[in-house]
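Complex record, four chains
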Amino acid sequence: MKIDPENPADLSAQIAAAIRDAIVDGTLIVDERLPSEAELAEQFAVSRPTVREALKRLAAQSLIRTQRGATGGAFVNRLSFEAAQPQQITTSTLLLSMNAVSFETACEARYALERACAPLSAERRTADHLATMRAEIHRQGHPGLTDEAFCASDVAFHRALVDGAGNPVLSYQLAGAVEAMQPLMNMITFTARSRGKIIELHTSITDALERQNAAATQSALTALETETQSLAQSVFAERAKKPG
Amino acid sequence: MKIDPENPADLSAQIAAAIRDAIVDGTLIVDERLPSEAELAEQFAVSRPTVREALKRLAAQSLIRTQRGATGGAFVNRLSFEAAQPQQITTSTLLLSMNAVSFETACEARYALERACAPLSAERRTADHLATMRAEIHRQGHPGLTDEAFCASDVAFHRALVDGAGNPVLSYQLAGAVEAMQPLMNMITFTARSRGKIIELHTSITDALERQNAAATQSALTALETETQSLAQSVFAERAKKPG
DNA sequence: GATTTCTAATTGTCTGGCATTTGATTGGCA
DNA sequence: TGCCAATCAAATGCCAGACAATTAGAAATC
């Protein structure tokens, strides 16, 4: 673990990179304790605040955790899917909002990915997954539901669908795509009629999964994508007509 | 932007979260300059090192960039897909290696996601994408190629396939899944015979894409998945027989 | 008017110190 | 001997102040 002493700027970034590399290539293993801040400062020939800045960078990526006290210190974190997901969602959300990604593009990606889960989910979904999906469908039918709550329930429905595939890697990747869409979906006003259509399609998806019919699940998802796209298009067209 | 003064621990994390929230909800917009470190320290009633630790956390996530000098400071970064991808790949790689995800599970997720790109890629792939894929296939046929270089070429091939879909959201999500598999793939020894089979399947994939035949692309991908899985299984079985 | 120099603002880093937390040690007491 | 409380030591969390390096703009000079 070495840093470049020639370049006196960005010392904390260099130190963070050195430690990160050591974690990635296995030099530092899970739950291993890093040297204390004072020792690291000595090793890298920098001051303690600089070391601390480096450690905070790593902590921001959940690569390490710190613990105070006599046996405390910085420990290599076991990066869990649960810990990585919130950050993945934040990043995906910002990517969409800051890069002028069209609703169409985001929606296309999301449904393409969900269709990828469909065959696995049709095979492996448990009664629990189906129950969650039906519960969300039921909630979506409630008349007093705000648009935002409707979207949140939609996300919960789709996450259950994805989790039904029983593949944590898929669930992790899809969480970003599905949740990041929520701010975009929240821009849509859902009329009673469009809600009814969506609920109908959610029901066909759930039915198809229950019958373990992968093809039917995929075509229902495609229908839902088409419906969502045209709904968004009409909302945006309406908004363009009367600005303000 | 407020922090909880009651809880004296984790001040830098609280400040980082406050600023991150301001960026996510649009209070701070792209390229906007944050107050100087001294001003932030005053606002949050903490010291400058604490503010700096918070800023480093945000810099680690590419949410801000800093610039020295008279008109310098911390600026909200436009989070680009290019900047987010390396971190997404690092995270995905660590998730696989630290969570004992089986080769089977990771492989299944990867090919499910790639199949999701196939229809779009069949529709939109350019001559450039096809040329890249054929070039990688050609490289893979070179006899002197190390296993590691073969894997790297494999990754390049699949990334071209994914990029062919012309959807940056898909490319971003898939990059994590594809690249993170590389360390797992590197554990496999590729015989001349297995390389030949893979090259053959890569060729059918490229041919199907060239003919814009989505179904053929998907079934070729499925065949490649089956081949990869059985290859891995035999390698691991062999390794289990004679340990060391 | 162009070039050079100066200046002010800002981040990057260091030194030194104190507060807080927490496990380990040690001493006292039953 | 066994248990419990007080103490201790190590480590992180935080702070104050200072200096160095960089950079843009202003001022001075040719």
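Note: Chain A has eleven helices and two strands.
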